[in-house]
Amino acid sequence: MKIRLQKYIAMAGIASRREAEKLIVAGKVSVNGQVVTKLGTTVEETDVVTFLDQPLSLEEHVYYLFNKPMNTISTKNDPQGRKTIYEYFEHVDERLFSVGRLDYQTTGLIILTNDGEYADRIMHPSNHIQKTYVATLNRRFDSQAIERINQGVEIDGRLVEIDELLFLNEKVLITIHEGRKRIVRLFFKELGFTVLALHRVKISSLTIGDLGPGEFKKISKEEAYQIF
Predict the structure, then answer these.
(1) Is 156 a catalytic residue?
(2) Long-range residue pairs from 194-197, CB within 8 A, at least 24 positions apart, any chain
(3) Residue 90 neighbours by CB under 8 Å, 6+ apart
(4) Which pLDDT tens digit goes with each residue over 116-148?
(5) Which of 47, 78, 103, 163 is catalytic?
(6) Is the dihedral of CA 226, 113, 103, 197 positive or negative?
(7) Contact in structure between 21 and 38 (CB atoms under 8 Å)
(8) Distance CA 228, CA 225 (A)
(9) How far apart are alpha carbons 174 and 165 in whole angstroms?
(10) pLDDT score, position 11
């Protein structure tokens, strides 16, 4: 059975399908010894596909929930030598990648997997996957801020869509389905607040539970896919 090369790469646990397309265009993928840069190329399961001269094979899909600690990055390598989340998974056999990212100082729930199709479905804007955060602000949240939200808050000319917002003094529980970079921090900044701490506690129906910073747990495919 023939499948598109970018799908094969995603199934092999290297990256999501969209990231796989970038790898192909960059000339980092070969099929049967020949560099392939054309999107839409199809391969058989018997073809030899390599990424940076390393042969790929189709893996069983796995899914992990991870509590990202403070001051770690979500990329595999960092020119500045900062700690990455992948250092916590050194003894996991599968090649994992994160489904989306949390910035350096943001903590909390992040999904790691080798299922590129799953990652693409979560990150695609049309699926409206909700993410819930607890934000600690520099001052008490008040009715004036609520009034401003009701009027509409724009970031880069686009309204920010809030699904749920609950607050008690300086802490705010906010649920949002947007995927724009640093959108929660920018949202509160637009309202005149500084975010002192930001912690993601939930992605759709998947919760961080009692995982401590740096801890992770494996979940089943059925649990992972229940969010759709």
Answers:
(1) no
(2) 194/137, 194/138, 195/135, 195/136, 195/137, 195/138, 196/136, 196/137, 196/138, 196/170, 197/105, 197/107, 197/135, 197/136
(3) none
(4) 889 989 999 899 999 999 999 999 998 889 999
(5) 103
(6) positive
(7) no
(8) 6
(9) 5
(10) 86
Rounded to whole angstroms, the Cα distance separating 140 from 210 reads 27
Helix (H/G/I), strand (E/B), else coil: 55: strand
Report the distance separating Cα 2 and Cα 8, nearest Å. 10
Instruction: Answer whether residue 1 shows pLDDT above 80.
Output: no
In tens, the pLDDT along 189-201 reads 999 999 999 999 9
Percentage of residues in the chain with pLDDT exceeding 90?
82
59 touches 208 (CB < 8 A): no
**pTM summary value:** 0.84
Sole residue written with tokens 């995603």: 10
Of 77, 51, 101, 96, nearest to 218 by C-alpha is: 96
The per-residue pLDDT for 153 is: 95
Helical segments of the chain, H only:
5-11, 17-25, 116-123, 143-151, 183-190, 221-225
User: How large is the average pLDDT for residues 36-56?
Assistant: 92
Predicted pLDDT of residue 10: 87
What secondary structure letter does DSSP report for 211? P
